[in-house]
Amino acid sequence: MPLIVQKYGGSSVADAEAIKRVAKRIVDTHNSGTQVVVVVSAMGDTTDELIDLAEQVSPNPPGRELDMLLTAGERISMAVLAMAISDLGVEARSYTGSQAGVITDSVHGRARIIDVTPGRIQTALNDGAIPIVAGFQGVAQDTKDITTLGRGGSDTTAVALAAALNADACEIYTDVDGIFSADPRRVPKAAHVPFITYEEMMELAAMGAKVLHLRCVEYARRFDLPIHVRSSFSNQEGTWVLSQTAIKERKVEQPIISGVAHDLSEAKITIVGVPDKPGNAATIFEAIASAHINIDMIVQNVTTAATASTDITFTCPKTDRELAVKTIESLKPLIAFERVEFDEEIAKVSLIGAGMRSHPGVSAAFFRALASANVNIEAISTSEIRISVVIRASDTDKAVQEVHTAFGLDADGEAVVYAGTGR
Amino acid sequence: MPLIVQKYGGSSVADAEAIKRVAKRIVDTHNSGTQVVVVVSAMGDTTDELIDLAEQVSPNPPGRELDMLLTAGERISMAVLAMAISDLGVEARSYTGSQAGVITDSVHGRARIIDVTPGRIQTALNDGAIPIVAGFQGVAQDTKDITTLGRGGSDTTAVALAAALNADACEIYTDVDGIFSADPRRVPKAAHVPFITYEEMMELAAMGAKVLHLRCVEYARRFDLPIHVRSSFSNQEGTWVLSQTAIKERKVEQPIISGVAHDLSEAKITIVGVPDKPGNAATIFEAIASAHINIDMIVQNVTTAATASTDITFTCPKTDRELAVKTIESLKPLIAFERVEFDEEIAKVSLIGAGMRSHPGVSAAFFRALASANVNIEAISTSEIRISVVIRASDTDKAVQEVHTAFGLDADGEAVVYAGTGR
Fold it and tell me: Best residue in A76, A85, A117 to probe B by mutation, most B CBs within 10 Å?
């Protein structure tokens, strides 16, 4: 019997009506002869409401307690979803992350999954029941304390559980029909992407596409687990995230450029006047790593010969900005830099496509498009399958639209993708 | 170092401000050199809101899932309370019932505590931290599923934990200054009771006094654990619940009558026309017990000679009324009774006092007081230290007030209690 893991996000279980609709979909899958394991996020705004409550009591709550608080969210949604399924005549049993065997490290607020031992889930399946598992949460291997996996953690729970159960696929349900070539709310002509490789999806996720979490795609890639991103509001096929080999097996032509992503959630931090001495950059980024801050786009400007010092710029989530600045300030006795500056009014815009590594003109065309939209570039970073720039936040819409059109991604435009000029 | 367990109910942690006030009280106790373990209920109306949510999805949710849902309530309050304490500079660690070692049977919605193994709580105390434990919940020994203890279960958690930790006392915080000789909201002259025996308190609890849960008092009695019921809004002494020996040691005179209780939460069920045959009553109450319905005041009327059948009446919580009626209906093929009737517009009014067993005139004076208030008695049941009657719900206030005055319990009246006429 085929086995799939279905993950439903907060918008799919926002209220009693939504939960009943999702329950119907799960029971339909079960009745069609497929074994189903469900992973569920907290209902709608529950998590935000719980964070508000914490803030009313303490400006800086301990991570252990914040995790304990936030995990109440999935506890509510999973129990109510199990009730709705039972009401349709099929037994459902809800399990916390801990009960489902999601073992993590003990970094509260952004724990990593170390192991998944889904003994109770397998038993429920063997009994013919539908297991409902709380996403986003686990239990620390050493302290036995409850942990959360951070933003988008429910996707990771779903994929990790699917891998541990040797499932045939992991379906990630959301409120859109899968992945688009840009955010459809900003680019009306954004086109639907039917297939995408793990690598491209990782770049999209890392560059701010909110549909799938980076760690979840990393996990799926490691176990070669097919992910199907689709809407809980329709029965349409969504986007399949697969290995390049699996895509070739399905005989699908891959476009050169798969999409444009943007991210408004990051802040830019610049350390001004870092003495140009070996080891300084290492000291800084070791301290940042110890504080568990995820950084991106490290740029070191050329050394000013006159001062023998340099400026180092990086981006990190706005929520980590305060901690990052404090962490760097604490290094002043060691490094004797001049000052730390930050800027939250930035956006990161990225062009992603596995085909671009063999098309050197892509960067030039990307910069040209930004220039014709009159958008100033503040920093640049590139990988094999991605180019990212930092720009003013207020320029985001015109930048994304111009690039989307320039690379022929518009749904109503040419179907064939742009291959770059000046090759 | 002395060790006390403090239990805070939902009204004491209703919102962020209330939680901060409770945190302050806990930290003050801790700083005064007393080890504190805290047991906390869900915030204010959280439990009712969660039940509403369940009802929107399923008219009859599975007990396992309802317990999973409701336990989110204490998870929220305990984490937020731990944050508020940390904010005052003292480490606090929250624990679910399962983490605190509260082991129960697997009767969802009204599980009984089998054992308490508070290893992690003891470790937290040894580390100088304040453990915050979720009341009302535990984990089933056999299924490992999450359970709840039923109405007032947090009191039981507190006392069971206090007994397991060999604490010096268990403080139950509420919104009133302890136990009164009647409900102060109905009887303005209700008097404060400084000391009461476990036995009297059990009768009061069983008869509808909401301040302490019956099982909690049973538990405290078994371990001879002093309970101090007091207000979280003041520093006044509340009511001490102790053994008769302990009260004598404190050289306190005990009154004959300690109070008047009333209960509007019960329904009256009458099985009409039960054939007068040995074993029928046993069959009925075995079935009721198997359905885990707590009943009270069983009254069997005299057999009508003409029909050789009898009527059996009992009371049970209104929430169990539907289940009770259904359970009895299912016995019809076995017992061939005539019909089942129920009535939810009833009240139970009880007079309680350890002294009454040696004062036979008390019942007569009780019935006389009800008669002079023009209150009709529908059923009577008595124990060594209690007399209860079933009356119309609409007569509750006048019945309670009249009895309270007749027995000299009014705070502004004579201080010495009434010893009964016609002895």
Answer: A76
